[in-house]
Amino acid sequence: MAALKEGDLAPSFTAKNQNGEFVSLSDFAGKKVILYFYPKDNTPGCTTEACDFRDNYQSLTSKGFEVIGVSTDDEKSHKKFEAKFELPFTLIADTEKEIVEKYGVWVEKSMYGKKYMGTDRKTFLIDETGKIITIINKVDTKNASQQLLEAI
């Protein structure tokens, strides 16, 4: 599958959130969506990024953005992550790895010389019509929301 690029239609998806409710990208039609992919709940970089979105949530929503985080962790893990850090946005449980595959963020990684498959940290900004308008490939976890706003 070819890599997604700005101007492409964002791949549709339906999956469960941290509350066990089905959520589809189409639920957010007419809104700008920050769809961010992260490797794992409760890890240092992922927590920093989620808390940055939490701390800037009001300013993002006031500009018409909805924030959605996606990882391959399950609903239970997402629920604990949400509660522990008081996250005010949707976390999608992509346990079947369908969404990460569609968005091209399920990649081979390497740590300490060992290769494994994992989620590449990447953020997509999707406009009201479902088009990808910005892709952040090198996410600054401490300033993820500011980095996104500067890119648009």
UniProtKB/TrEMBL annotation:
Residues 4-152 form the Thioredoxin domain. The active site is at residue 46. It comes from the Bacteria. It catalyses: a hydroperoxide + [thioredoxin]-dithiol = an alcohol + [thioredoxin]-disulfide + H2O. Its EC number is 1.11.1.24. InterPro entries: AhpC/TSA, Peroxiredoxin_AhpC-typ, Peroxiredoxin_BCP/PrxQ, Thioredoxin-like_sf, Thioredoxin_domain. GO terms for molecular function: thioredoxin peroxidase activity. Thiol-specific peroxidase that catalyzes the reduction of hydrogen peroxide and organic hydroperoxides to water and alcohols, respectively. Plays a role in cell protection against oxidative stress by detoxifying peroxides and as sensor of hydrogen peroxide-mediated signaling events. Belongs to the peroxiredoxin family. BCP/PrxQ subfamily. Monomer. This is thioredoxin-dependent peroxiredoxin. It comes from Pedobacter cryophilus.
